[in-house]
Write a structure and sequence with these properties.
By secondary structure, this protein is mainly alpha-helical. 58% of the residues lie in helices and 7% in strands. The chain has a two-stranded antiparallel sheet with strand order 1-2.
Length: 144
């Protein structure tokens, strides 16, 4: 059973039309793979953390070579590096782990929804006017 609007030539169903209207600058959120956005967040957080710790370690080594290994400036920079490592292990790593588990969950749900492809159309991360934080949408094929 198709929607009455889909019977007209050149028109698509109301749900597909709403999704199409929300695309801008060639961005198609319905083409995203389940978990893609969360994996990107995990990758960015890991890289930022590694770069920050690397910069602190290199700066500490340069301060040690410049001022001497027993200078208070070098010892203070070592304390800063230790505090940064503590902050990363206490706050950043649990955040990365939560995003990683969320991405794994999204990928599992996406793989389950792939089995419905013949009867339903699934969208991962597509915008919905009524529910802005919706991760997956399942729409009957005849509604499109």
């Amino acid at each position: 059973m198709q929607s009455p609007q889909a019977d007209e030539p050149g028109r698509v169903g109301p749900i597909k039309e709403e999704l199409t209207m929300s695309f801008y600058y060639g961005y198609d959120p319905t083409a995203r793979v389940a978990g893609e956005h969360s994996r990107g967040i995990v990758r960015r957080l890991r890289m930022r953390t590694l770069v920050a710790l690397g910069v602190l370690a290199v700066a500490t080594a340069l301060l040690g070579r410049t001022f001497g290994w027993r200078d208070p400036i070098f010892l203070g920079s070592e304390v800063v590096v230790l505090v940064a490592i503590f902050v990363v292990s206490r706050f950043v790593l649990p955040l990365v782990d939560r995003h990683d588990r969320g991405a794994t969950g999204e990928e599992r749900v996406g793989s389950l929804l792939e089995g419905l492809q013949g009867f339903f159309e699934t969208f991962a991360g597509a915008p919905a006017p009524e529910v802005p934080a919706l991760l997956h949408q399942v729409v009957r094929v005849w509604d499109l």
